[in-house]
Design a protein that fits this description.
Oligomer: single chain
Strand content: 15-25%
Largest sheet: 5 strands, mixed
CATH architecture of one domain: 2-Layer Sandwich
Helix content: 25-40%
Length: 365
Amino acid sequence: MTETLSVRALNRATLARQLLLARESVPVAEAVARLCGMQAQEPKPPFLGLWTRISDFQAADLHAAVHDRTLVRATMMRATLHLVTATDYTAFRSAIQPMLDGAMRVLGDRAEGLDLEQVVPAARALLEKRPRTFNDVRALLQAEFPDVNDRALGYAVRMCVPLVMVPTQDRWAFPRTSEFALADTWLDTPPAAAPEADALMLRYLAAFGPASAADAQAWSGLTALGEVFERLRPDLRVFADDKDRELFDLPDAPRPPEDAPAPARFLPEFDNLVLAHADRRRVISDRDRPSLTSKNLRVRSVFLWDGFAHGIWDMVYKRRVATMTLRPFEPLPSGAVESLTTEGHSLLRFTEPDAKETVVAVAED
């Protein structure tokens, strides 16, 4: 008989794999590999996400890893920027290409006249000369293809040419307008020619399982993953959730008891923990899920209490005072406020080390 896993059991299993039941003393690259990448739409969130997961994490550790090219920031899952290991980028970039190709549909009428067989080689020729910002790439391609929408040209390059972002000495390792380099030049090796979808799904389960094929599709952006899981089924454990949906997992992956203690934790914007499943009840209730995304589609920072998202948070640094405001979805028990306040002060000291004062406040509304 198939074992049924409760929402709390799924929560604890996922937190264990996401290094959120306890901070672990692991190198930065190993942590990013275990997380199967970190969404990095902006450069700052991965620093905060690693601080909340790694004991004694220092910003210099992540700086060093992107500068020595052990880690790269590049377009990956869901056609969004991710921080991944160089090894994973070369192994899995080809596996996600079908999703990136499909993303081109969003261009609609703007793609009129766009010929990828001409644009992709032209873009590679430009980037072979030196890394460039996308503003430069669009302008140069527009000069070469004057009848094609400049945004369509830039988007085509982002989706169809394997690129990585070039780090700098900026505080969060990348400036607002970063340069991009050809991945095969930056890493001195091209992406694997053969798509490794099966291997990618095993890595997904290691980081986010137990999970369904629909969950894996939500995380990756890929489609028809049911076929992949059918191939993998003989080597996987199969569970059911409380709605009798089939979940897959690696046989020896951690599945702690559902009463395992889960400490207060702060997740940055765009954290994959809140994005990696179609059914996200293992992290946030269906009632509160709409609060995750702002009107301009930013994925908000959330805080965890007893393993689940209980509210959003933000911080402001002004006149050397770093202030964090917690906005709970519902009133918090006193023990939660105390634990979150302690953790919040620590995060503020990491984020704003020059602050003369740190303040953690709970919003009244």
